[in-house]
Structure formats: structure tokens, C-alpha cells
Specification:
This protein is mainly β. The chain has helices at 20-30, 43-46, 49-52, 464-469; strands spanning 81-84, 89-90, 98-101, 106-108, 119-120, 123-127, 130-134, 137-138, 142-144, 161-165, 208-212, 215-219, 223-225, 229-232, 239-243, 249-265, 272-290, 297-315, 319-324, 327-336, 341-346, 357-362, 365-367, 378-383, 385-390, 393-395, 410-413, 416-420, 424-426, 431-436, 439-442, 447-449, 453-458. It is elongated and about 60 Å long.
């Protein structure tokens, strides 16, 4: 059961922000362009920019004017960034982050993949001809950043810095990096050749850009970020963080938090692998998040004003994503085999002037095909939430302890929900849609088929408005 929270004032999921351009640049570079069978034309440019112009849950345009500035990363012909052998890596670029290929010793701000020897094929599926999941990426590369204060926005500070982080031993480097620029920790993080340990990141003060070198990281204690942060690798296939014990990534009381280009392997002991609490702007992209069936929550959000999760795979948790009092856009994300719930949104507040959470699911798939039959439950569960679903699929969820609601593709309680576009709710072992005192609008080419029952609707004992705004 969710903790009860006050709701945010009613607002569109995306709003004008002076730092949105900075987030966009980070997402553009991390999700490098590639093939994926031609399904995702240029994920590097789709990620972030498309999210910024997506409709709000009520079907209208986003509130506020979003100025994303010049969203095409580029360097002038006379400012190409090449390797500097004296410092163990390339010199920092002057304008925008670039992807450094240690094999060719070249830093490219807009890589096409044509001169890279190893390109990860990605991890995902296709729905309605669109790619859903983790895009292909350039393996064993890493991100080089300009000086943090050159980026402006949240990083326009005297103590803002870029930190390079590397695995602690050579045994944790990818085999392909041998002789081509693999780095191990042992320095202050000021440049790749002096990279620091991930277990020292908690000692960082001030706004930080943390660039992860290729390899495997063993996280012994939770990382807690208390100032604006970008925490990014350039390819999730090359950067793996193994959570030890109850460790995880915690972003709290921040104006900006970006997580991108990594694989996180859950330990099962932490309540959530990644959490965003009291964050103004949160962005996640190119993330592979693997649970081990006992990990309670993949990503937990609480009081997040504006959040995006795009081009990622969230796999094998009890709950893939849980929202409380948050506004989140989910685009091109594959929720795979999460044993209880793919996405849980809302939580009925005791005192509220509106919906607890706003959620927009776009071109995403929630599938429990290979989850254990006795455990798989609901694709999307909402409680007191405002939700828009477009061009997304909810399928193959199985019955839990014989409870009818537990096998639903979608289970909504006291929520407003629109399901539109070419969405699909099918092959669930209970009702396709279970609606309890909710308004559910199904339109467009949406199909609800192959379920035990298509739609089940019930009423609460009390009034709908009382459920959302009751006085204790």
C-alpha cells in the first residue's frame, strides 16, 4: 500500500525550465545513433527532444514554452577533440560532451557508428513498428565533458566539477579495452587517467557531472546525491553497476538529476535500486535495470515535479516503477517480467486538492511473459492518478492467489485514464482492464482482446471525490 501524500498543484507534466537544454544535451549524446533494424531511426535525437514536446495527460500541449536551444551537438572543424597521451585521455571538449573511442583515439560529438568496431545490438522489442527498450550503442567508449561551469544552468557554480570514475581493478575492465585505453581507479577523478573509485563518489561536494569509464563496478554503499548531478556512461552494455547488500542510487532534494547509459544489477536487499525524492527535474535514459525477483522496486519516485524515463529496460523486480506524488513521462521503455506490478502510480491522499500523480505512458510495453505464474500480477496499477496511455501494450500478466484484479493488464482505482492511439491490452489471465470507481476513456485503434474478460468495472463504497479529497 502506498504512503499517503498531499498532491501537487495541477500542472502539465512538462514545463518550461532554464535547465531543460542541459538535460537534453546529456540525453542526446548518451543515446548514440544506430540501426536496431531500422526501427528507431535516430534514438540519439529522439531521446529528450521528443519527450519535451509530448502531449500532457489531458491530451493538450505541454504547459509553458520549453526552450531547448541548439539541440544538435557539434564542434567546429578547428576544434576537434583528439587524445592527449600525457594525461591518459582526450582533452576536454569546449562546448558539448562527446563520445571518446579509445581504439581510434578520437572524440566525436555526433557519432554515427561507422568507424566503431563493436556496436552493442541493444535490448528490446518492437510494438507497432516502433522500437521499445535499450537502443544500440558504441561499446567501450566513454563521455568526455567540457568544464562543468561552461554548461551553465545548474552547473554555473564555482564548485561544479566533472569527475571521471573507473573500476577499481583491471579484472573489472571489459576484455576489449585491453591495450586501448582501459582505466582503473586511483586518482582524484579530474581526468580519465586519474579516475576515482565509485565508492568515493559520496565525498563529492557541489554540482557534479560523473562520467563512468567502461567496466564493472561493485557498489558497497548507497550513493546519495545532494546537489545537481549527471551520472552517465555512454553505453549500458559497457558499464555495469553491481549493487552489494542494500546499496542503491539515491537522488534527494535536487533541482536536477540525470541517470543515463548504465546497467544496474539489483541485489534484492535494497527497497529500491534507484530513487528520486523531492527532485525538480529527473531524467533517465539508456538504462538497463535488472532485478533478481526479490528486489522490491526498480525505480521509486516521490515528489518529482518533472520526470522522464526513456529508451530503457526495467526487468525482474517486484515493481518496476513506483510513483508517489510525481509527474512522469515514460517513453519507449520495456517493463519485462516484473513479478508484482510493472508500474504503480498514485496512492490515495488523506488530504488533497487533486490527483496524487500524473503519468504519461507512450510507446512502451509492459510484459510478464516469463515471470513466474504464481507471482506475476498487474501491468499498470493506479490509485488516485491522472494517466494517459498512448501506443503502448499491456500483456501476459498471470493470476496471483486466484484474485481477479491481480491478473489484469491495467487496474485503476479512483483514477482518470485515457487509453488511445494503437494501444493493446491482451492475453492477461484476468480482465484486460479492471476499473474501480475510475473514469477510463478508450479510443483510437486500441484493442482489448484475448483476456479472461475485457473490462470489469466496480464502484467504491464512498464517493469518487471523497476518495480523492476526503477530510480525515
Amino acid at each position: 500500500m502506498f504512503r499517503r501524500r498531499h498532491s501537487l498543484p495541477q500542472r502539465s507534466i512538462f514545463q518550461s525550465s532554464k535547465i531543460f537544454c542541459l538535460v537534453t544535451i546529456a540525453l542526446l549524446v548518451v543515446a548514440c545513433s544506430g540501426d536496431n533494424g531500422g526501427a528507431n531511426d535516430t534514438p540519439g535525437t529522439d531521446t529528450g527532444v521528443e519527450d519535451a514536446t509530448s502531449p500532457s495527460p489531458d491530451g493538450g500541449e505541454n504547459g509553458g514554452d520549453i526552450d531547448v536551444g541548439d539541440t544538435e551537438p557539434h564542434l567546429d572543424d578547428d576544434s576537434d577533440v583528439h587524445a592527449d597521451s600525457d594525461v591518459g585521455g582526450p582533452e576536454p571538449p569546449e562546448a558539448v560532451p562527446c563520445v571518446f573511442n579509445p581504439e581510434d583515439q578520437f572524440c566525436d560529438p555526433n557519432p554515427e557508428g561507422n568507424y566503431w568496431e563493436m556496436v552493442d545490438p541493444g535490448d528490446g522489442t518492437h510494438f507497432n513498428t516502433n522500437f521499445v527498450g535499450l537502443p544500440d550503442c558504441l561499446m567501450n567508449s566513454y563521455l568526455m565533458w567540457p568544464p562543468a561551469d561552461d554548461l551553465g544552468g545548474e552547473f554555473d557554480s564555482d564548485n561544479a566539477r566533472v569527475y571521471y570514475v573507473a573500476p577499481e581493478t583491471a579484472d573489472d575492465l571489459p576484455p576489449q579495452t585491453e591495450g586501448s585505453g582501459g582505466f582503473v581507479a586511483g586518482g582524484d577523478g579530474s581526468f580519465p587517467g586519474a579516475a576515482m573509485s565509485i565508492n568515493d563518489v559520496n565525498d563529492i561536494d557541489g554540482p557534479a557531472i560523473i562520467s563512468l569509464m567502461p567496466g564493472t563496478y561493485h557498489l558497497e554503499n548507497s550513493l546519495t546525491f545532494e546537489d545537481a548531478v549527471i551520472f552517465a556512461g555512454s553505453c549500458a552494455e559497457s558499464v555495469t553497476i553491481e549493487l552489494q547488500g542494500s546499496s542503491g542510487l539515491s537522488f534527494q532534494d535536487l533541482s536536477l538529476a540525470v541517470l543515463a547509459g548504465v546497467t544496474i544489477e539489483g541485489s534484492g536487499e535494497a527497497q529500491s535500486a534507484v530513487e528520486f525524492v523531492d527532485v525538480d527535474t529527473a531524467a533517465v535514459t539508456s538504462l538497463r535495470l535488472n532485478g533478481n525477483a526479490t528486489t522490491p522496486v526498480g525505480i521509486y519516485t516521490e515528489n518529482v515535479k518533472n520526470g522522464t524515463i526513456t529508451y530503457s529496460v526495467i526487468d525482474g523486480h517486484q515493481e518496476g516503477l513506483r510513483l508517489e506524488n510525481s509527474n512522469i513521462y515514460v517513453g519507449h521503455v520495456l517493463f519485462r517480467d516484473n513479478f508484482a506490478t510493472g508500474i504503480a502510480a498514485g496512492g490515495a491522499p488523506e488530504e488533497s486538492d487533486g490527483f496524487t500523480s500524473q503519468l504519461f505512458i507512450d510507446n512502451s510495453v509492459l510484459d510478464a511473459t516469463d515471470a513466474a505464474v504464481e507471482n506475476a500480477a498487474v501491468g499498470l496499477r493506479t490509485e488516485g492518478a491522472l494517466v494517459s496511455v498512448r501506443d503502448s501494450a499491456f500483456r501476459n500478466h498471470s493470476r496471483l492467489n486466484g484474485a481477479e484484479q491481480s491478473a489484469a493488464g491495467i487496474a485503476a482505482t479512483a483514477s482518470y485514464m485515457r487509453i488511445h492511439g494503437a494501444s493493446s491490452v491482451r492475453n492477461n489471465h484476468g480482465p484486460g482492464i479492471f476499473s474501480k470507481e475510475s473514469r477510463v476513456w478508450i479510443s483510437g485503434a486500441t484493442r482489448v482482446d484475448g483476456n479472461e474478460r475485457g473490462l470489469v468495472a466496480q464502484r467504491l463504497d464512498g464517493d469518487f471525490d471523497d476518495f480523492l479529497n476526503d477530510d480525515p
